[in-house]
Specification:
Distance between the termini: 51 Å
Number of helices: 14
Number of domains: 2
Mean pLDDT: 91
Low-confidence stretches: none
Radius of gyration: 27 Å
CATH topology of the largest domain: Carbamate kinase
Structural class: alpha/beta
Bound molecules: arginine
Helix content: 25-40%
Strand content: 15-25%
């Protein structure tokens, strides 16, 4: 790529990320990763990225795991590694290993955060990090006849102290360890601590750095976005078979989502800058889990006119759509349905009912080039069709110059200008010479 191209890309990237930079200031993100992350080549770059987020005013809570480090300690002692239903059974020896391993991991992370940005333009950025007894735990107890001993579950998080540190711009680091009011120490899972922290701190995001690209479907294809309802259906129909880590993260995502944490992200920990790509681009690169669909299909409002113009003017220039002025759009805005994706209008369509003739015109159907061939046109079309039925229309017609086939596939039949409502016939643009297609609903 030549330099000009590079520059243009850089400028575009930076401009596109600015809404996110702005939106993330003073927001609380809980970022969780397993102990594997520490031995990963991407750990040092990750620390840089965390420092960057910190400097952009993001309130950061990091939750680390230590499973491989604990296992190494157990191996050193030739002690057994006991897991029951994916949870470690923590006996006295295991607890000693947990304390040693977690302590070491915590110190290593603190050390990296301390030197994180030397020899970079952020050299002077002084990153402060604290850790402490912020997680209060209780024993998991006996389950299905198994005593989990020192394995615990989170009772609560000391949110006040954590918020106090975050207010000062300090990063809070939580280990998978909890303390009881009687001075006992419990072994916890990363996901447990991250879930409790995200909920209790009312975080804006929970981000898991995972071994895979995110949640993969049966064909091993990455699923970019999932709603709570979609996950519930997939679980019911058992169409997801996930590795243990993804399973745990997904359960956590659902729990925090139900508790009001707006977005949970799963990002591949092996991707350099993965977290930046996920956070500062509209489409991200991992899996996003939200309560409602990430694409919001809704009736357009006057504030959408600017976005609509941006969407449709390139199509008008190509002659695919009829030219429409801002004033016209402002007047006609009530007829429009738009698809909004994180603040950007990526698709639109308008419905004009001719009540007397019980027929409606579907007009101005447009999908942003970056989002074509992903089924959005279909969903938008079906939405309009439903809307037409609800309004009591019996037929829909379109005037098209370019997309006749698409409509024919949807059951539209070629028709004549005289089949249009009289009022519309008068407005027909003979120069444009669009074809008329009609469908009986
Ligand atoms: N950058 C945005 C955010 O942080 C959107 C990310 C979308 N990610 C996805 N996997 N679809 O919220």
């Amino acid at each position: 790529m030549d330099k000009t191209n590079n520059n243009t890309d850089y400028v575009r990237w930076f401009r596109n990320s600015s809404p996110y930079i702005n939106a993330f200031r003073d927001r609380t993100f809980v970022i969780a990763f397993g102990g594997e992350m520490l031995t990963d080549a991407q750990f040092a770059p990750l620390v840089h990225d965390l420092a960057l987020l910190n400097s952009l005013g993001v309130r950061l809570v990091l939750v680390h795991g230590a499973r491989p480090q604990i296992e190494a300690k157990l191996n050193e002692r030739n002690a057994a590694i006991n897991y029951v239903h994916g949870r470690r059974l923590t006996d006295d020896t295991a607890l000693t290993c947990v304390k040693e391993a977690t302590g070491t991991v915590r110190i290593e992370i603190e050390a990296l955060l301390s030197m994180g940005v030397s020899n970079t333009p952020m050299d002077s950025a002084d990153i402060r990090v604290v850790s402490g007894n912020y997680v209060i735990a209780q024993p998991l107890g006996v389950r299905d006849g198994v005593d989990y001993l020192h394995t615990g579950e989170v009772r609560r998080i000391n949110d006040m102290s954590i918020h106090g540190h975050l207010d000062e711009g300090t990063i809070v680091l939580l280990s998978p360890i909890g303390y009881s009011p009687t001075g006992e120490v419990f072994n916890l899972t990363v996901q447990d601590v991250a879930t409790a922290a995200a909920i209790q701190l009312q975080a804006d995001k929970l981000i898991y750095l995972v071994d895979s690209d995110g949640i993969l479907d049966q064909e091993q294809k990455l699923i970019r976005e999932l709603t709570l309802a979609q996950i519930e259906t997939m679980q019911r129909e058992q169409t997801l078979s996930l590795p243990e880590e993804s399973e745990k993260c997904l359960d956590s995502a659902m729990e925090v989502c139900r508790a009001g944490v707006p977005r949970t992200h799963l990002v591949n920990r092996h991707t350099d800058g993965g977290i930046l790509l996920e956070l500062f681009t509209r489409d991200g690169l991992g899996t996003l889990i939200t309560a409602e669909s990430f694409d919001d299909m809704r009736q357009a409002a006057i504030d959408d006119v600017g976005g609509l113009l941006e969407l449709i003017s390139p199509l008008e220039e190509k002659g695919i759509l009829v030219r429409r002025s801002r004033e016209w759009l402002e007047m006609e805005i009530d007829h429009f349905t738009v698809v909004e994706r994180d603040g950007m209008i990526i698709a639109c369509a308008a419905l004009y009912p001719f009540a007397e003739e019980k027929i409606g015109e579907l007009a101005c159907l447009a999908i942003h080039p970056d989002y074509q061939k992903q089924g959005r046109g279909e969903s938008l079309y079906h939405y309009i069709e439903k809307l037409a039925r609800q309004t009591g229309l019996q037929k829909l017609f379109v005037l098209t110059t370019h997309t006749a086939h698409w409509f024919q596939e949807k059951g539209y039949q070629m028709a004549d200008i005289k089949d249009l409502p009289v009022q519309r016939q008068a407005m027909y643009n003979y120069q444009r010479n669009s074809k008329v297609f009609i469908k009986t609903l």
